[in-house]
């Protein structure tokens, strides 16, 4: 049993069956709360939130479907399994269309029951205690992520700089927000900027501000993000893409706790915590001369490395359930979830685009479905569409650079001097480009066993 310590609310108006089922569940390690009616079950919710509700369908006063309706109002997303001695196909179809997770017929097969409980708990958002609101944006039950979150909570109490690393789309900004929310600065601004999305002068102006007339188009003074985040947290996303000249100015600002707006002669004191993130290998960037070593150590006091989604596959059903509830609420409220086959396909996919790709797949499925439960075929279609999707500008540029470098190295048979001349770059810059794309000139020389693939 994967979730044997979960809390189950068991509801049945048959006292003997309630006792028997409760003993069976407790024997498997579940924490069990019992209720003899739907009304009593709702009262139990006021003192403790279970992870799952297991209820009889046929009960006096409030039956299982009425109880399910009330649960959805009070605890949206709470998984519910219904039991009945009068099971029928119409009842099961109606229940699952309305969002009931599973529908089992008495007498209950214990293996079927425990399998259904495990599947339901795999999709259920983990119960958060009151002091866990800081991390509410991060949906996980992965031990690896829980360990990282515990480290994040501990480091949040201090004011040290944090570098969040991990593949693109793995949730680095969400982690930065969680650290901010858990810190003494939580009541102050959290300000984020992507350092790779702006040209150098504009990025400098956005970070430090500028004085009126400092450059063409600066018709008025502009307050930078350091000032906007005063007292709070400034999140520098894709810090590895920051130009070297700007890295010098950032380092000086962090050392002196002062900034000087572009075109100004006056320094301004700042009180800002820095959290930065990158998907790049900064150790390699330092070695290649693309990232300042002194800035690296200033930013990387604590490093939190986020795993790829494929490394936390147990979170895929959980995230899919959370995301589909959000997407359905915005677009199609009749959509209740994924079929078991669809969830299995989601969980077994590679997710090269990580959580961001999962978001896109869920959004596509909700947009295209006409049924309450999304089938496996629609998930397969959405995954195929993702594979053929137009890449981002950064991805397209990186792909072009690599293809271009391979082509000139093939033309020059691995002669870096000639290749750099064709590319219009000096040898140092050309070697940096090769390092960025993990290309070795030697494999292109005559007699080399194999060159890299053409992509």
Automatic annotation (TrEMBL):
GO MF annotations, alphabetized: ATP binding; DNA binding
CDD domains per record: AAA
UniProt keyword terms in alphabetical order: ATP-binding, DNA-binding, Nucleotide-binding, Phosphoprotein, Transcription, Transcription regulation, Two-component regulatory system
Location of 4-aspartylphosphate modifications: 56
InterPro entries in alphabetical order: AAA+_ATPase (IPR003593), AAA_lid_NorR (IPR058031), CheY-like_superfamily (IPR011006), Homeodomain-like_sf (IPR009057), P-loop_NTPase (IPR027417), Sig_transdc_resp-reg_receiver (IPR001789), Sigma_54_int (IPR002078), Sigma_54_int_dom_ATP-bd_2 (IPR025943)
Pfam families according to UniProt: AAA_lid_14, Response_reg, Sigma54_activat
GO terms under biological process: phosphorelay signal transduction system; regulation of DNA-templated transcription
Response regulatory domain segment(s): 7-121
Domain spans labelled Sigma-54 factor interaction: 138-367
Protein's recorded name: Two-component system response regulator GlrR
Organism (species): Cobetia crustatorum
């Amino acid at each position: 049993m994967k979730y044997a310590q979960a809390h189950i609310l068991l509801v049945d108006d048959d006292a003997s069956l309630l006792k028997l089922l409760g003993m069976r569940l407790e024997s498997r390690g579940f924490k069990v709360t019992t209720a003899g009616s739907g009304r009593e079950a709702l009262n139990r919710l006021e003192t403790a939130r279970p992870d799952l509700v297991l209820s009889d369908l046929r009960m006096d006063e409030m039956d299982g479907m009425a109880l399910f309706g009330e649960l959805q109002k009070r605890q949206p997303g709470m998984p519910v399994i219904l039991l009945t001695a009068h099971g029928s196909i119409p009842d099961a179809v109606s229940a699952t269309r309305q969002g009931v997770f599973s529908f089992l017929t008495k007498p209950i097969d214990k293996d079927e029951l425990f399998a259904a409980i495990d599947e339901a708990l795999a999709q259920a958002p983990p119960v958060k205690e009151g002091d866990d609101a800081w991390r509410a944006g991060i949906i996980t039950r992965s031990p690896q992520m829980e360990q990282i979150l515990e480290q994040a909570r501990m480091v949040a109490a201090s004011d040290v700089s944090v570098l969040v690393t991990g593949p693109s789309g793995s949730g680095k900004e969400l982690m930065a927000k969680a650290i901010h929310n858990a810190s003494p600065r939580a009541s102050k601004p959290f300000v984020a900027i992507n350092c790779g999305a702006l040209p150098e002068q504009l990025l400098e102006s956005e970070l430090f501000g500028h004085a009126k007339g400092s450059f063409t188009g600066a018709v008025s003074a502009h307050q930078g993000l350091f000032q906007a985040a005063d007292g709070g947290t400034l999140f520098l996303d894709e810090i590895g893409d920051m130009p070297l000249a700007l890295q010098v100015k950032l380092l000086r600002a962090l050392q002196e706790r002062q900034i000087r707006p572009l075109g100004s002669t006056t320094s301004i004191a700042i009180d800002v915590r820095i959290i930065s993130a990158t998907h790049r290998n900064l150790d390699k960037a330092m070695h290649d001369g693309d990232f300042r070593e002194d800035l690296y150590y200033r930013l990387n006091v604590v490093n939190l490395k986020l795993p790829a989604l494929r490394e936390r596959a147990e979170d895929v059903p959980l995230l899919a359930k959370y995301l589909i509830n959000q997407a359905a609420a915005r677009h199609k409220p009749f959509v209740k979830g994924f079929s078991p086959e669809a969830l299995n396909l989601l969980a077994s996919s590679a997710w090269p685009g990580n959580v961001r790709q999962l978001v896109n797949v869920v959004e596509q499925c909700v947009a295209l479905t006409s049924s309450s439960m999304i089938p496996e075929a629609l998930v397969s279609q959405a995954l195929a569409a993702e594979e053929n999707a137009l890449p981002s500008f950064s991805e397209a540029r990186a792909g072009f650079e690599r293809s271009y470098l391979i082509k000139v190295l093939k033309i020059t048979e691995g002669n870096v001097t000639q290749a750099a001349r064709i590319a219009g770059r000096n040898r140092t810059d050309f070697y940096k480009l090769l390092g960025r794309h993990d290309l070795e000139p030697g494999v292109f020389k005559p007699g080399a066993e194999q060159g890299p693939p053409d992509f």
